[in-house]
Design a protein that fits this description.
Alpha-Beta Plaits, three-stranded mixed beta sheet, 57% helix, 22% strand
């Protein structure tokens, strides 16, 4: 977390200030390590942000369809989209069901799909299911 990172960097800087006067080479080495660490953190923030900004699909479509297709009543799952921040994903998917399915049963089916996807993927906050008849 951010607090842990700040604490570690503060401790390292304090140690370097104390030992840097005795061993100047240590100070230079630690500065390079801190710069490398900060560069790595910046790169990970940029990658995470660009995925969110570019609306990249955050879940594996095959894995989502495997979960959805295992539910009784679902004949096929396709066109899966999962977007948003990794801790707050919005999933949009299509399913095919038998054309004679009752509306009440389709609502139960959607509730089951939402529940199963939220259980299997902690970041999923909302699921929108499009029902298409066979």
């Amino acid at each position: 977390s951010m607090i842990e990172t700040d604490l570690i960097l503060s401790i390292v800087v304090t140690v370097v200030l104390i030992t840097g006067t005795i061993y100047p080479l240590v100070e230079l080495l630690v500065v390079f390590l801190i710069v490398a660490f900060l560069f790595k953190e910046c790169a990970s923030i940029i990658v995470e942000s660009s995925n969110t900004l570019c609306d990249a699909c955050r879940l594996d479509e095959t894995a989502v369809c495997r979960i959805v297709n295992s539910i009784d009543g679902v004949e096929d799952c396709y066109r899966v989209r999962a977007h948003g921040a990794s801790e707050s994903l919005f999933v949009d998917l299509h399913i095919k069901v038998m054309s004679d399915m009752h509306v009440r049963d389709s609502h139960r089916l959607i509730a089951r799909i939402e529940n199963d996807l939220k259980k299997s993927n902690k970041g999923v906050s909302d699921v929108f299911v499009h029902i298409d008849p066979l």
